[in-house]
Design a protein that fits this description.
This is Putative phage protein. By secondary structure, this protein is an alpha+beta fold. It folds into two domains: about 30 residues, no CATH class; about 110 residues, no CATH class. It is about 30% helix and about 25% strand. The strands form two sheets. It has a five-stranded antiparallel sheet. A two-stranded antiparallel sheet has the order 1-2.
């Protein structure tokens, strides 16, 4: 009788752990991911480069001058990034630049951020924005020129992070392969 009760308890325990639809009981190995970010990472994730078509269109400014606007688009069914924002901790610059850059003041971090933007995108920061930083940062700097905005860099506050915002125009004029260079940088960023 004792064995029969023990066996009944064991079977009942297995039955209560099993879902009603007959699937396997949930374990750590078959749980869904905590967040879905588009799939699993592979070794070639940062090396795959989509094919883009570069072309130019022309517009006239307010004075009648003809201006060429470089553009690009995905070929066939490929897509491309047309705006991106990313942030990372300021300690990343210590790891990236080591002793080459002495980072003491905000301006030192912004010089390092401009160097990074030059390396990745092909253009850097050209001036500080008037007013506050936006996005809850204390200060903001602009990438591009007086005529066109390629993006913004926010710094100060926000737990010692720096935020890059690249506009669609900035993505379009960035040096070819910037996506792979940015991926490589962010993979090692803090």
């Amino acid at each position: 009788m004792e064995d029969k009760q023990g066996m009944t308890k064991a079977v009942a325990g297995v039955m209560t752990d099993a879902p009603a639809d007959g699937r396997k009981p949930t374990t750590a190995s078959n749980l869904p991911p905590l967040s879905n970010r588009g799939g699993t990472e592979t070794e070639t994730a940062g090396r795959v480069q989509e094919v883009f078509e570069c072309y130019e269109t022309y517009i006239t400014d307010g004075k009648g001058n003809l201006l060429g606007v470089p553009l690009r688009r995905g070929v066939s069914d490929s897509a491309f990034i047309d705006q991106i924002s990313f942030s990372f901790h300021e300690k990343t610059f210590f790891d990236k630049y080591g002793v080459r850059v002495s980072l003491l003041e905000d301006e030192d971090f912004i010089r390092a951020a401009s160097m990074l933007a030059e390396e990745v995108f092909g253009f850097g920061i050209y001036k500080e924005s008037k007013g506050s930083g936006g996005r809850f940062y204390e200060r903001c700097w602009l990438m591009g020129s007086e005529d066109v905005l390629y993006g913004r860099v926010h710094f100060g506050g926000q737990n010692n992070t720096i935020l890059f915002e690249l506009t669609g125009t900035g993505c379009g004029v960035a040096k070819e392969g910037w996506e792979s260079r940015l991926f490589a940088f962010l993979t090692n960023a803090i």
